[in-house]
């Protein structure tokens, strides 16, 4: 088992002031819930300083912000020649001339202990005000995490919402012919960098899910002798099963506190949802309906579970208390609803919907109202929320093609392939890394 990369990263939570510049309110704050939104033009020149990291960090920051759909990084070919001193106020006229509304500049310094120190500033070009100034330190191999943390800080300052760039995604990497598909558990940074395998392909893996409290995963593995649900510690590589069951075990998901796992057990064509306490390994049965009940997902407070069931004649979304009581139906529109997942913010439930000969990724409120379809394709399925509850990653398969990872914003904007070149499915987004 390949051990996950260790991280040594510190944030100095100090605003780096420059003389008379005050805490002026940003004139360029982005209203991200507008119906029509023009991406904000911003400039991210190469960070000055030592080593090759300045150029690389600027490129990653620029790419992260561009993929969010809220920012339009400008072509560096139009930038004024020469580097920017992070301790000197920029010549704002140079950036106004290319219509940049925001400017990010920085400096990389190699400390005596071998770590890199990165200072950066965010400027409102037209009001000529500093909006943000922070300093990060990290080991050189973790320069990408510094870039992601800078991206998160800028995103939050200008949109008012938490960022999601300093995260990882676990997914099922697929290879080989359709009839002999090899499915391995894989992990990567959210921007597709640093991909690695967590399983060797000897078993078919499905539905990996992150714990929100630790570097732990749960997933299903299908072998010749049946299916099992596993726990995997990413940092240590330790793996263990949740126990043996007489039927097929699938669709596991952690409770918000990481102390329980909900999953489905199929016996003789009937699937029910169970909940296991990880400290005692005692499992309680939550549903007893003769229909298929599966895909449980907790509300952020852990008090409710959304799931899908065909007890009404076709797969629909239902909600119940975490002890299995108080079941009520959420979805009533035409179509088949599957794979629900509660937003980390608690305001929406995402789902897969099959209707009109196509598949969709959609969202609705926890009371079943305000249903919106964000995507439409030959086969879209399995949404997963970014930790800020703003972006969804899902699986898309085209007719005759392979499964790919895609992302879409909660508003339906920014639908695009995720930056992973291979074939993949079943994505699950991590919480923000520590």
CATH class of the largest domain: Mainly Beta
Number of domains: 2
How many beta strands in the DSSP annotation? 31
Mean pLDDT: 90
Cα distance, first to last residue? Answer: 22 Å
What is the CATH third-level topology name of the largest domain?
Neuraminidase
> Which band does the percent of strand residues land in?
35-45%
Corresponding CATH architecture of the largest domain? 6 Propeller
Whole-angstrom Rg: 23 Å
Structural class comes to mainly beta
**How many helical stretches?**
3
Low-confidence blocks of residues: 1-26
Task: Please describe the biggest sheet, giving its number of strands, its sense, and whether it closes into a barrel.
Answer: 7 strands, mixed
What would you give as the CATH superfamily of the largest domain? TolB, C-terminal domain
Task: Report the helical percentage.
Answer: under 10%
**Shape, principal axes of CA atoms:** globular
Question: Could you characterize the architecture of this molecule?
Answer:
- With about 425 residues, this protein is mostly beta strands.
- The protein folds into two domains: about 10-25 and about 40-160, 3-Layer(aba) Sandwich (Rossmann fold), CATH 3.40.50; about 170-430, Neuraminidase (6 Propeller), CATH 2.120.10.
- The protein has three helices and 31 strands.
- It has helices at about 55-65, 90-95, 145-160; strands at about 10, 40-45, 50, 70-75, 100-110, 115-125, 130-140, 170-175, 180-190, 195, 205-210, 215-225, 225-235, 240, 250-255, 260-265, 270-275, 280-285, 295-300, 305-310, 315-320, 330, 335-340, 350-355, 360-365, 370-375, 380-385, 390-395, 405-410, 415, 425-430.
- The strands form seven sheets. Strands 1, 2, 3, 4, 5, 6 and 7 form a seven-stranded mixed beta sheet that branches.
- Strand 9 (about 180-190) and strand 10 form a beta hairpin.
- Helix 1 (about 55-65) crosses helix 3 (about 145-160).
- The longest helix is centred in the middle third of the chain and has 17 residues, at about 145-160.
- Residues about 1-25 have low confidence and may be disordered.
């Amino acid at each position: 088992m390949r051990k996950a990369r260790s991280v040594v990263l510190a944030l100095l939570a100090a605003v780096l002031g420059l003389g008379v510049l005050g805490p002026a309110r940003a004139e360029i704050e982005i209203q991200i819930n507008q119906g029509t939104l023009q991406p904000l033009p911003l400039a991210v020149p190469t960070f000055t300083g030592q080593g090759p990291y300045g150029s690389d960090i600027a490129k990653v920051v620029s790419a992260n912000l561009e993929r969010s759909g809220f920012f339009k990084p400008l072509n560096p070919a139009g930038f004024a020649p020469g580097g920017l001193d992070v301790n000197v106020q920029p010549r704002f006229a140079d950036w106004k001339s290319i219509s940049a509304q925001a400017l990010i500049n920085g400096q990389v310094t190699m400390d005596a202990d071998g770590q890199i120190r990165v200072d950066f500033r965010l400027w409102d070009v037209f009001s000529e005000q500093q909006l943000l100034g922070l300093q990060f330190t990290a080991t050189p191999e973790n320069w990408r995490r510094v870039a992601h943390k800078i991206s998160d800080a800028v995103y939050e300052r200008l949109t008012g919402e938490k960022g999601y760039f300093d995260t990882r995604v676990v997914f099922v990497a697929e290879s080989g012919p359709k009839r002999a598909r090899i499915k391995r558990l894989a992990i990567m940074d959210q921007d597709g960098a640093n991909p690695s395998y967590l399983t060797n392909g000897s078993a078919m893996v499905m539905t990996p899910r992150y714990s929100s409290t630790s570097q732990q995963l749960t997933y299903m593995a299908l072998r010749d002798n049946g299916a099992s649900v596993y726990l995997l510690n990413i940092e240590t590589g330790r793996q263990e099963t949740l126990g043996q069951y007489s039927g097929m075990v699938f669709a596991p998901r952690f409770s918000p506190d990481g102390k329980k796992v909900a999953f489905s057990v199929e016996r003789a064509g009937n699937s029910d949802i169970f909940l296991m306490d990880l400290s005692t390994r005692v499992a309680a049965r939550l549903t007893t309906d003769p229909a298929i009940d599966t895909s449980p997902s907790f509300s952020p407070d852990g008090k409710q579970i959304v799931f899908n069931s065909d007890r009404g004649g076709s797969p629909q979304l239902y909600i119940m208390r975490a002890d299995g009581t108080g079941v009520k139906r959420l979805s009533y529109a035409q179509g088949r609803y599957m794979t629900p997942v509660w937003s980390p913010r608690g305001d929406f439930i995402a789902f897969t919907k099959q209707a009109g000969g196509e598949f969709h990724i959609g969202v609705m409120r926890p009371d079943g109202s305000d249903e919106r379809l964000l995507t439409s394709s030959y086969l879209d399925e399995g949404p997963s929320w970014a930790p800020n509850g703003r972006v969804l990653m899902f699986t898309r398969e085209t007719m005759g093609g392979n499964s790919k990872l895609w992302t879409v914003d909660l508003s339906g904007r920014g639908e695009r392939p995720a930056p992973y070149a291979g074939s993949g499915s079943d994505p699950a987004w991590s919480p923000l890394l520590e």
